[in-house]
TrEMBL record:
Species in which this protein is naturally found: Marmota marmota marmota (Alpine marmot)
Protein's name according to its UniProt entry: Olfactory receptor
SUPFAM superfamilies: Family A G protein-coupled receptor-like
Taxonomic lineage of the native organism: Eukaryota, Metazoa, Chordata, Craniata, Vertebrata
GO molecular function: G protein-coupled receptor activity; olfactory receptor activity
Gene designation per UniProt: LOC107158688
G-protein coupled receptors family 1 profile domain location: 39-285
Amino acid sequence: MASANNVTELIITGLFRDPEVQRVCFVLFLPMYLATVVGNGLIVVTVSVSKSLRSPMYFFLSYLSLVEICYSSTVVPKFITDLLAKVKTISLKGCLVQIFFFHFFGVTETLLLAVMAYDRYVAICKPLYYTAIMSHPVCHRLVVGSWLGGFFHSIIQIFITIPLPFCGPNVIDHYFCDLHPLFKIACADTFVVGIIMFVNSGLFSVFSFLFLVSSYIVILFNLKNHSAEGRRKALSTCASHITVVILFFGPAIFLYLRPASTYTEDKLVALFYTVITPMLNPIIYTLRNAEVKNAIRKLWGKKVNSRIG
């Protein structure tokens, strides 16, 4: 940490200040987090053991679900336990660790969504070359590249934050540690680091979103050359992906495109992409995908039969 720091512990204001409302939120958000872990975990297990889900699309889906669990777990468990605490605190080092993993898993998810869009593009627009292009080594390299991209993005965020001096006050007006609220309490000019963050997070989110939207527009345009059944199946898959993309990128773009110096905290928007979206993703993918639903039923049936036997 910089030598000017005399702040070692931060106080988090939380989502609401009324103790009764916080207890209601605890009862509401704990089941949502458990549903996130169970739902995404079920997809990971199902894809891993099911022989019918061996295509690259499901390989990427399993990693997306794994990242969703990690992404949500960087924020939500502490947020939930803080709802029952009178004073919500986190160390400055712990705050930086939370920021690192929050952005690490967030950008990894962004890149995985781009990989999934590319997979659908190859499957629909170049079906004869699909198995050659999306081979197992290529799929593994794309996943590793997504993790590495998230790591390097997050390292940049931490490198621009560590040199900042924090000499008081030590109150973060949020329910978890993120860059905007942390920049607010730095006792130094954060204009330059705000611009770097704007480029690294805000513009990255916009360009990623535009790339994904463009990819799916090209995919939908090419569906006219497919049979009615092929179009129906492809539209169902793409609709799930597009829904997840909108739910993920909408709040992120809304928050990170605004400069830190003029930023007004919107905790409800942050709540949407940290708590609600990770819970909805497995529902979106399974409800619109007959193969995943059938694989889950078979997996569940095997477990029930093994217990009875």
